[in-house]
Design goal:
With 745 residues, the chain is of the alpha/beta class. It is 26% helix and 21% strand. Helix 5 (130-136) crosses helix 13 (361-375). The longest helix is centred in the N-terminal third of the chain and has 17 residues, at 139-155. It binds beta-D-glucopyranose (BGC). The site of beta-D-glucopyranose has 8 residues, from loops.
């Protein structure tokens, strides 16, 4: 195979690269033209290169060494000026040359302020969890939500948001799944790209993280994640690749864990071969906090994050010593400094200096609510229990739903919601924070003719008695998840399964609202009438839930993660290393245990993450990836497929019901016998309306990664394609003939 025949995914080599970004897989013609018009970068590449080159020449060595070392803003010396907000990190700027300081905040679901511990009294709009964003399957909505949090970051004086979490949710018990975009590389990569675009549209630099295979919190700093290269390229790396192509983040954050024997921040395969050589990434790599183990500037790390005073860390005194010893050269430092400067310019930090501004929290709350309403998933709705129609006596049980709603998960991304937390509940790690968006109050407002009462669920028998006297029960069940800890199993905690069973036995007209970080088991599923997965629905989650329950909003979310029927179905029925780490160690040491023996985490599913694993094994999950019900019905017809080198599908979606609604029609292909999502179409349709839609398929989704040739290979042949409502329900099927094709890595 000659180099000349290796092409970019959708067109001849080297041409119209920009257009490719605007038509990437999963992003459909109608949608793309609406949402991906503007270039992601604030500046042209050549202007950024020129600025970086000219500044680099003028920097002293000390100034350059300050740029490759992020510091803890709380211990920064001399003290930071009071107007600089305290967040996760701070990198000194060079005012005399107009090089901005990097003022860094977490994360993907809002401007973080872990239980108010960073900036006393400061609040921010809690965007719903990232897995909810993924469940919208709506790039434009994800971009809008992320633009909102990026704008808040900027208004508060931050110019870096440590957003863009795109680790594939391989492990449903991972305590951080709420920060990620689900289990599929196309969905996760596409939406992460749009989230990054949204953040960066404010001239706020975004990361993409944590590079790579950072799939669990258990032993996150000491585990060695092993996977063969082809599987890695076809799954987790593809998600990063798509996210970078679409979002062009200023920085990539390398992960704590080892990936095939080398730590993320000194992994030359990932940082040099994949990121720079193959993907041509021009931004800089920053470390996760405490993830650096050596002066790995030559391995591809550009900036160590969150170091403490005294010039400790690997990019402080040790880097100077390495320079003196000649094991690192000034040219190495300059290469990294140049990348950092270039990203500052490319994301607009240089030309748009920070200007703190007032924040319209009301408008931002509405954005958070729109996102929540787009990503809450109706899982079950027996006999059309929902929307709530004639019920006069409604009982709401549990979830502190009388005062508010769990605002998000815990850890570095935790947002102190606007209005302040109306409730703080101590948890195994940190505190559960509740925003003041109460489903009970919202239901009372929406249904003035009904009586809405509340039972806190602490006594199942009392709740069951109250349920007997109600026409309809809404039971809010919660699972708090957090960075540093995985959940020990997929059961709802605190006897909530027993509570639900007791209440549903008393009154089958029970709608369970799940407020969870990820999938849970539902041993009571047959007893209840309806189930809504609300994830962590953010600032106005209670209002969003009430609007869906009452039918003011027609649900349109679709699962971004498979809900297993049992833990035995998982590739790893127990979490690798869990028996050694347990919960306590992680809680006490922020997930950074130093006294545990390193262990290997292997992934029997390889590239077949999530639904692909179930498909391959012929096992039935509880709820399939892509599943999501509506109050109306949709039908698909007239599937046409184009094969050749650039495959695509067209088909018609019709709203066959009586309500307006949005559908997410999904296209899957079989590659070497296993299903893969290859695109989707999310459309809003009025009752009776139909629309012809087309799905452009990124050929990399149909390819295997050929490690020896270092490229993607679509093997010539006939491929099965289908359009369906989830990963298991095909409505239309066809076959296409594909040409043999090689695509650049
Ligand atoms: C997390 C990162 C986060 C960083 C800074 C780390 O513990 O893994 O996602 O951005 O802390 O707070």
């Amino acid at each position: 195979m000659s180099q000349a025949t290796i092409t970019s995914p959708d067109q001849p080599q080297g041409t119209r690269r920009r257009r490719w970004r605007a038509t990437t897989a999963g992003c459909l013609a109608a949608l793309c033209s609406a949402s991906i018009a503007a270039p992601a970068m604030a500046q042209s590449a050549s202007a950024s290169d020129a600025w970086a080159d000219s500044i680099l020449k003028q920097l002293t060595l000390d100034e350059r060494l300050d740029l490759v070392r992020g510091q803890n803003p709380f211990t920064f010396k001399p003290k930071l000026p009071t107007e600089v907000p305290r967040g996760a990190g701070y990198v000194k700027g060079v005012p005399r040359l107009g090089v901005p300081a990097l003022v860094e905040s977490d994360a993907s679901v809002g401007v973080a302020n872990m239980v108010g511990g960073l900036r006393a009294g400061d609040v921010a709009t809690a965007l719903p969890s990232t897995v909810l964003l993924a469940s919208t399957w709506d790039p434009a909505l994800v971009e809008r939500g992320s633009a909102m949090i990026g704008a808040e970051a900027r208004a508060k004086g931050f110019n870096v948001l440590l957003a863009g979490g795109v680790n594939l949710a391989r492990e449903p018990r991972n305590g951080r799944n709420f920060e990620y975009f689900g289990e599929d590389p196309l969905l996760a990569g596409t939406l992460a790209g749009h989230a990054i675009r949204g953040v960066q549209s404010n001239h706020v630099l975004s990361t993409i993280k944590h590079f790579a295979l950072n799939t669990q919190e258990t032993g996150r700093t000491i585990l060695n994640a092993k996977m063969d290269e082809a599987a890695l390229r076809e799954s987790d790396l593809l998600a990063f690749q798509l996210g970078i192509e679409i979002g062009q983040p200023g920085s990539v954050m390398c992960a704590y864990n080892k990936i095939n024997d080398a730590h993320g921040c000194e992994n030359t395969f990932l940082l040099q071969d994949v990121l720079r050589r193959d993907w041509g990434y021009a931004g800089f790599v920053m470390s996760d906090w405490g993830a650096v183990h050596s002066t790995s500037i030559r391995q591809g790390l550009d900036q160590e994050s969150g170091t403490t005073p005294g010039d400790v860390g690997h990019f402080g005194v040790k880097l100077r010593a390495a320079l003196a010893a000649g094991t690192v050269t000034e040219a190495d430092v300059d290469r990294s400094v140049r990348r950092i400067l270039r990203s500052m310019h490319a994301t607009g930090l240089v030309d748009h200096p920070m200007a703190p501004a007032p924040i319209d929290y009301d408008a931002n709350g509405r954005v958070a609510q729109d996102v929540a309403e787009g990503g809450i998933v109706l899982l079950k709705n027996k006999n059309k229990l929902l929307p709530i129609a004639a019920a006069r006596r409604i009982l709401v049980v549990g979830g502190h739903a009388d005062v508010g709603m769990l605002a998000g998960g815990g850890g570095s991304s935790q947002v102190n919601p606007v209005g302040g937390a109306v409730l703080k509940v101590p948890a195994a790690f940190g505190k559960r924070l509740y925003s003041g968006s109460s489903p009970v109050l919202a239901l009372r407002q929406a249904l003035p003719g009904a009586t809405v009462t509340f039972d806190d669920g602490s006594d199942p028998r009392r709740a069951a008695d109250a349920a007997r006297a109600a026409d309809l029960v809404v039971l809010v069940a919660e699972q708090y998840t957090t960075e540093t800890m995985d959940v020990k199993d997929l059961n709802l905690p605190d006897n909530q399964n027993e509570l639900i069973a007791a209440v549903a036995d008393a009154n089958p007209a029970t709608a369970v609202v799940l407020v969870t970080g990820g999938p849970v088991l539902m041993p009571w599923l047959d007893k209840v009438g309806a189930v809504l997965e609300a994830w962590y629905p953010g600032q106005r989650g209670g209002d969003a839930i009430a609007r869906i329950l009452t039918g003011a909003v027609n649900p349109s979310g679709h699962l971004a993660m498979t809900f297993p029927a049992s833990e035995q179905q998982l590739p790893n029925p127990t979490i690798p290393g869990y028996e050694m780490a347990g919960e306590t160690l992680h809680r006490d040491q922020y997930g950074l245990p130093k006294d545990m023996k390193p262990f290997v985490a292997s992934y029997p599913e390889g590239a077949n993450t999530g639904y692909r694993w179930y498909d391959k094994n012929g096992t039935r999950p509880l709820f399939a990836f892509g599943h999501g019900l509506s109050y109306t019905s949709f039908a698909y017809r007239d599937l046409r497929a184009r094969g050749g080198a650039n495959p695509s599908l067209t088909f018609t979606i019709a709203n066959t019901g009586k309500r307006a609604g949005a559908d997410v029609a999904q296209a899957y292909a079989r590659v070497d016998g296993v299903k893969r999502l290859v695109g989707w179409s999310r459309v809003d349709l009025k009752p009776g309306e139909r629309r012809r839609v087309s799905v452009t398929i990124d050929p990399r989704l149909l390819a295997r990664f050929d490690v020896a040739a270092n490229n993607w290979h679509v093997a010539a042949g006939t491929y099965d394609l289908e359009v369906g409502t989830d990963a298991t329900q095909a409505q239309l099927k066809t076959k296409v003939r594909l040409d043999d094709r090689r695509i650049k890595p």
